[in-house]
Amino acid sequence: MDDLPRLARRRARRGGCRELAYSSSKAALNMIIVRYAQALPEIKFNIVTPGEVANRKFAATDMNNHTGQLTVTEGTDPIVKLAMIDADGPTGIFIDRLGPVAW
C-alpha cells in the first residue's frame, strides 16, 4: 500500500489519472441519466456521443487537436436528432451518429 501514492503520482504525470477520472465520471453520469429516465418518464433523458462508436470515429475538434475523422457538423447530427424528438420519442437511450448504441 505504501507504493500506491507513488504510483498515482507517476501515473498522473503521464496523464493516466486524468483518463481514470474522466471515464469514471462518464460512467457515473451515464447511470444517473438512465435512472432519471426511469424515474421521470415525462421528461426525455438521453445520452449522445458526437461520433460513431462501432467505427471508432470521433469528431475533429480543438479538444483532440483535430485528430478526429468526422467533421464537427457530422458530430452534431445525433445531438440535433435528439433535440428534435417529440413527446413520443425515446428516453434513457445512448445514441451516436449511426443510431442507438447498446449499453
What are the main properties of this structure?
103 residues, mainly alpha, three-stranded mixed sheet
At a glance:
By secondary structure, the protein is mostly helical.
Q: Could you explain how this protein is built, in words?
A:
The chain has helices at 3-14, 16-39, 72-83, and strands at 47-48, 51-52, 57-58, 94-96, 99-100. The protein is mainly alpha-helical. Strands 1-4-5 form a 3-stranded mixed β-sheet, covered by helices on one side. Strands 2-3 form a two-stranded antiparallel sheet. The two termini are 34 Å apart.
The helix content, as a percent range, equals 40-55%
Number of helices: 3
The proportion of strand residues reads: 5-15%
Stretches where pLDDT is under 50 for at least 5 consecutive residues are none
Write down the overall geometry: flat
Widest sheet: strand order?
A: 1-4-5
Rg over C-alpha atoms, rounded to the nearest angstrom: 17 Å
Mean pLDDT across the residues is 87
Helix and strand composition category: mainly alpha
